[in-house]
C-alpha cells in the first residue's frame, strides 16, 4: 500500500481483457485517497487466481472476456467466496445481460460510458454492502423480472429464428417435427410479448437474449 493510503482503503481487482482499459481505470481509481487497485486480470482464469491471492474488497468485472465471460468468471469467484462484492462494467445493456449478472451475484452494473464520479460512487456503495444500478439499468432489470424465462428448447428455437432458419429448417436442425417448432415459437412469442418472427428477432437482439456473432 502506498504511503498516502489509509487502513480504510478499499482494495480493488480490475478484470478486463484490454490493457489500456485496465490502465485507465487503475490510474483514475488510484488518484483517490481511499481507493487502491491491488491487482489486474485479463481473463477469467487470471481473475480467479488474483482473487485468491489478494482477496480484494471489490471486483470491477468486464462482462465480455475471452473464453468464459465476466458472468461466468464472477460465478467462479463467488464459489470461492460467496461474500465477494463485484461491480459489472459493460458496453452491453440488454435486459438478459443485466439479469444474468445479478443472478451471478453482481452488486451493481454500469455502462462503460459511465462518468468517473458515478463509477467512484458505485464502488463506495458496493463496498458498503449496498447495490448500485443507474435508473436505466434498474428499469431494464425490472422489465426482465416481469418476463418468464425461456426453456432451453425455446432458446434453441429463438436462436435459429434469429439466424434466419425457417420452421422446416429449424425442425431438421433440432430433429423434431415442424408442428413442434411452431408450438415452441408460439410459446416464446408469448413470453417475449411479440406477435411474429420479425418482432422476436428484434426483441432477442435488443434485450441481449441472443448474441450475434
Describe this structure in words.
The chain is α/β, with parallel strands linked by helices. The protein folds into two domains: 136 residues, Response regulator (Rossmann fold); 55 residues, Winged helix-like DNA-binding domain superfamily/Winged helix DNA-binding domain (Arc Repressor Mutant, subunit A). Helix content is 52%, strand content 13%. The chain has a five-stranded parallel β-sheet with strand order 2-1-3-4-5, with helices on both faces. The N and C termini lie far apart (42 Å).
Task: Please tag this protein with its features.
single chain; 213 residues; alpha/beta; Rossmann fold; Arc Repressor Mutant, subunit A; 2 domains; five-stranded parallel sheet; 10 helices; 5 strands
CATH fold-level topology of the largest domain: Rossmann fold
Name the helix and strand elements from N-terminus to C-terminus, one letter apiece: EHEHEHEHEHHHHHH
Q: What class would the helix/strand composition place it in?
A: alpha/beta
How much helix, percentage-wise, in residues? 40-55%
Query: How many domains make up the 3D coordinates?
Result: 2
CATH H-level name of the largest domain... which superfamily? Answer: Response regulator
The main sheet comes to: 5 strands, parallel
Range of strand content = 5-15%
Number of extended strands: 5
The first-level CATH class of the largest domain is given as Alpha Beta
